[in-house]
Amino acid sequence: MNKRERVANTLAGLPTDRPPVCFWRHYGPLQPEETVRQHLAFFEATDMDILKMMCDEFFTYPMDENATPEEILAMRPLGRDHYYVRGQAERAGQINEALKGEIFTLYNAFSPYATLKHTLGDEKSMALIREHQEAALHLLDIICEDTCYMIEAVLKQSGTAGMMLPLQGAEIDRFGEEEYRRLIRPTEQRVIECAAALSDTNLLHLCGWDNIPNRLEWWDQYPAKMINWDVHVEGVDLAQGRSRFPGRVLLGGFNNREGTLLHTGTKDAIQTETRRIVSEAGREKLIVGADCSLPMDTNPRHIRWVIEALSE
Predict the structure, then answer these.
(1) Which ranges of the chain does DSSP label H, i.e. alpha helix?
(2) What would the pLDDT profile of 158-172 be if each residue is shown by its tens digit?
């Protein structure tokens, strides 16, 4: 069974020779050619079934980070022809062309709030939302529109199968439910709907990057074939995820953080944990991966050890 067949069967709930594997990492804000080269090198070194593309040169939204609320209110979407939109589709297309259809690929599309936070920083973005809501909502709308343009371009032009949709902002100590539904949810939901309209093989990533539990119930009904959450932050293991997210393909199992097993463990320990993950979650509709991005210095051989254990 080849990689694409293995993923297709998993998504359909059909038998496979083993669960597919998908881990991802950041690469840094590199030149386009180096971004492509690093993605291909990561795939070659790991031999995974799914490659989640992450082009860090587009990690932040192109704007004046010191813009005043008045200047933000005068901003307009960048549009389909802007490099922020066009460049991401081009980069995904270059990676997919080099892979020659061998592997199932996803491309990253942050929620507008997550993009805002990455662009301005946590403190400045929250200050904008708290103190200048009209400007904040206008900026979220602009980011949302350009993100939807990007999703459309990636899915229609680059040969990418689906989007990975990371959500942030539902930490238990950040927003109240009414605030979240009024300020954050509308643009977040529009981005997810944009992806769902163009692909039925998207991955919803409920991000626990800040090590603070999220209110998963604010997110878990969004449409997506696959779902991934931070098992170790949320306290919801894969077995519990079967009932929490019924019918979904679950992706995860390993802790992604520095110094944890996948990062520093021995072959025997990593393979023992791989078997435990599958025993806990069951083989059906399971993709073995991690809570979030791996440290950039994770040895690709550790991922091959996971695949080797799954192939026994």
Answers:
(1) 3-12, 32-46, 69-73, 83-99, 112-120, 122-131, 133-157, 177-179, 185-198, 231-234, 238-244, 261-264, 267-281, 300-310
(2) 999 999 999 999 999
